[in-house]
Amino acid sequence: KGLASSVRGHRRKPCESALTLTDGADFRCPIGLPPIKTEEELREVLQYGTVFLNTASLHWRSPAEICLAAASVLQFPTNINVYVTGHSRKISTDVHTDNHDVLILHTQGAKHWRVFAPPARKRGTHPLYRGKNEDKLLESELGDPLLDVVLKPGELLFVPMGFPHSTGTEGTGDSGVSVHLTLGISTADYDFSYGGLRKCLLQHLAQDPQ
Length: 210
Description:
This protein has 210 residues and is α+β, with helices and mostly antiparallel strands. The protein has helices spanning 39-45, 61-74, 194-204, and strands at residues 5-8, 11-14, 17-22, 28-32, 50-53, 79-85, 93-96, 101-108, 111-115, 147-151, 156-159, 165-168, 178-185.
């Protein structure tokens, strides 16, 4: 209910949402989002971590319109998640990689972003899911950031899939709440890659793609 719900007529469609708790080191835990119906309640929750709303574009008109416009230009499906972080958080999102390209659309406040080159392959881990679940990307695996920047409203950042990145709001010079949208372009989910092209060609030639 509350922030996690969108309303159309008399129907409520809950949006997947959570509060991410992290100390940037050994502790990382997403928990269920409590009911949030006022800005005051949201600010209270943001004292503890970052609120994220997955697939917001399936629930609210504004992000849906952005996705439709992007899909029209890119000729590819897109999705939007929303991230809300309070001020002065050293780590709001632990360093990790994603299995999709992302356009960051910053809309409110400020957020510090660091983007790194893809680390060397590590046995037992997937390069597009590093820093997630039980895996942790160590500083020793990362070099100096390729990009170290503070985003402000109206600014945009592109993060390619497989490039580690982390965020925070400490030292940004802004004391307000930070909000950004991530426009995800999930080519890997659709096998839209050289590997996928190879598989299609082999299938077309009636050969085993394995």
